[in-house]
Specification:
This protein is an all-alpha fold and 459 residues long. The chain has a domain of 254 residues. The protein is 50% helix and 0% strand. It is built from 16 helices and no strands. It is globular, with a radius of gyration of 22 Å. The two termini are 19 Å apart.
């Protein structure tokens, strides 16, 4: 089983994903001066201005992120050959780079939010980010990570982290930093092009890391990387047109993930983030061409009902399988939906709040795996005084109809499923999806509550 990031991870992501409206922008000019170059990936002028406003207001999520970056600035950043799990503020590679990824994004976001506002802090955090990128880009002969390790599994961490970190930290990088990171990125991408596991199978966790890395590398390193134009051409003509668009359109309507949610959460984050990278970095909008954030958010929301503690219990999930609703993934998705002005964004945000708050009591309201931080509840406008108390989410008529659609879809995949309505009767819920209309258990309106906790059949 793959290990996930263990400590203080991706604090930047709840802070970033909670911005209500991301705002689209045209692709950045690759020829712009590196010393003042604006970020190309995700941090549009609108997003960055709003984050700076929240930082100026001492938003609790910002103060947590800045304190984390301040600590990192005094840390030692181990190369991949050195201890993988040092104590904070030191950073090691963790499991095939998952220790590096969140921290380079944390430092990059601190640097961009502070630039022009608190330049002294920006210099400190930019320098720390440059050191961390150098550790990630260590040549294989000097103790760096070989891209062939585990058939290229690490591209989702090394590739994504270096490409995003390069873009966000570009003005803080020296000429040697630029050369080293670009050289390393190109070695990861070229190896995976030729040898990576499932490099032509777009619905799989390896491919999603590859897709995001190559898209972010093309956009983030253009002007510094002679291979960037060819990378983007391959993303457009082969990866998207021949692989992702046709297969996702044919097979992924309604959401879900065929490999299950041990790999599904990160896979969904990566492929939807690749769509954002294409839109912000290259000015290409692919959102309407494939089932993406909305379908995945609706799937997770409904298949976590009614407990919010388990996913999908139709007799096909057994012990040892990841069942917890991916709250951090929902934070990504709700932010992406708001960014695209999707009307489902409000529902997704409400579900995200419930999932995060539902997890926090079990985790002690501390920083936990994959970036869940107590501040995330505040970002999602949940009442601070109740952030460690479980709440339930209201469900409307539409969610029942979604459930029926997914039941039939799973039947087509050859799984043993219950008939529509039978699942609810076995859990003590309404057999007719229309009966769930208007349930708002958090406030008790209409006098209806779903079961507070249930165990999946077969667990």
């Amino acid at each position: 089983m793959r290990q996930r990031c263990r400590r203080g991870c991706a604090i930047a992501i709840p802070f970033l994903a909670s911005v209500a409206c991301w705002g689209a922008t045209a692709a950045a000019d690759p020829a712009s001066d590196a010393g003042t170059r604006a970020p190309r990936l995700y941090l549009t002028p609108t997003v960055l201005a709003r984050l700076q406003q929240r930082a100026a207001a001492q938003d609790p999520a910002w103060t947590a992120l800045k304190a984390h970056c301040d600590g990192l600035a005094g840390g030692t950043f181990n190369t991949p050959a050195e201890p993988a799990y040092p104590n904070f503020p030191d950073v090691g590679q963790g499991y095939e780079g998952d220790g590096y990824l969140p921290e380079v994004m944390n430092l990059g976001l601190c640097y961009r939010v502070e630039s022009g506002v608190d330049d002294a802090s920006a210099v400190v955090h930019g320098a720390a980010g440059a050191r961390l990128l150098e550790a990630m880009a260590t040549p294989v002969a000097s103790g760096g990570q070989d891209p062939s390790t585990d058939d290229g599994y690490g591209i989702r961490n090394y590739g994504v982290g270096m490409a995003t970190g390069f873009d966000w930290l570009r003005p803080a990088l020296s000429a040697s930093n630029v050369t080293d990171v670009v050289t390393s990125l190109n070695s990861w991408v070229s190896w995976f092009d030729a040898n990576g596991f499932s490099n032509n199978e777009p619905i799989g966790n390896y491919f999603e890391g590859y897709l995001l890395t190559k898209t972010a590398t093309a956009a983030g390193t253009a002007g510094d990387n002679p291979a960037a134009a060819a990378d983007w051409s391959d993303v457009q003509t082969r990866m998207w047109t021949q692989l992702v668009q046709p297969q996702f359109s044919a097979s992924m309507s309604g959401g879900g993930w065929p490999e299950g949610w041990e790999y599904g959460a990160r896979s969904v984050e990566n492929y939807t983030q690749a769509l954002m990278a294409a839109k912000t970095g290259e000015g290409v909008d692919w959102w309407s061409q494939v089932p993406s954030a909305r379908d995945e958010a609706a799937y997770i929301t409904y298949f976590a009902w009614p407990s919010r503690l388990h996913m999908d219990d139709q007799g096909t999930i057994h012990s040892g399988v990841v069942l917890t609703p991916p709250g951090v993934t929902m934070a990504y998705l709700s932010g992406m939906l708001a960014w695209n002005a999707d009307p489902y964004a409000a529902t997704a945000r409400s579900a995200t709040t419930a999932f995060l708050v539902g997890e926090l009591p079990l985790l002690g309201c501390v920083a936990t795996a994959r970036g869940l931080h107590a501040a995330a509840a505040l970002l999602l406008r949940e009442r601070p005084e109740s952030r460690c108390r479980p709440i339930l989410v209201g469900h409307g008529r539409g969610l029942g109809l979604v459930r029926q659609r997914h039941v039939h879809r799973r039947a087509r995949l050859g799984r043993t499923v219950l008939q529509p309505g039978e699942h609810r009767r076995r859990l003590g819920g309404p057999a007719d999806p229309r009966e769930s209309h208007g349930v708002v258990a958090a406030s008790g309106r209409n006098g209806r509550r779903g079961p507070r906790i249930h165990r999946p059949v077969g667990e």
